[in-house]
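Chain A, query sequence.
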Amino acid sequence: MSAVEDRLTALGIVVPTPNPPVANYVPFVRVGNVIHISGQVSIDAGGGFKGVVGEDVDLETAIAAARLCGVNLISQMKAAAGGDLDQVARVVKLGGFVQAGAAFFEIPRVVNGCSDLMVEAFGEAGRHARSAVGVYRLPFNFAVEVDAVVELK
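Chain A, predicted structure.
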């Protein structure tokens, strides 16, 4: 098991099988040592987190939804790295999208759920540039979606 997976296990996280694409795209594209990972929504085996943040979904649940997006991103990283998360050299950038209600403005705090996980899993290599955007709707009514750019060794 990799050092990254050891840290994830200590956090109580089991890296799931990557989610397949739901439309005409691929889960990630590798260009040299850089992988661009398609947006990962807040889904898990139990259905995940759906709804409008600030209306149907409270802040703490939305933060958990963003963390789940991070788990799904790590799953795609593992696939792109041939099964070895220790091959991740750097999480370069995250793009976070929150399905936010009209009166909800804590978008950065929500996306911290994913950002914090990247640092917990990868240490300093998990620190990244980021955007955090509130949007009107996300696919299939999921609360949060995050995409990533990652450098491999």
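The mean pLDDT is 97. Residues 42 and 69 are 5 Å apart (CA to CA).
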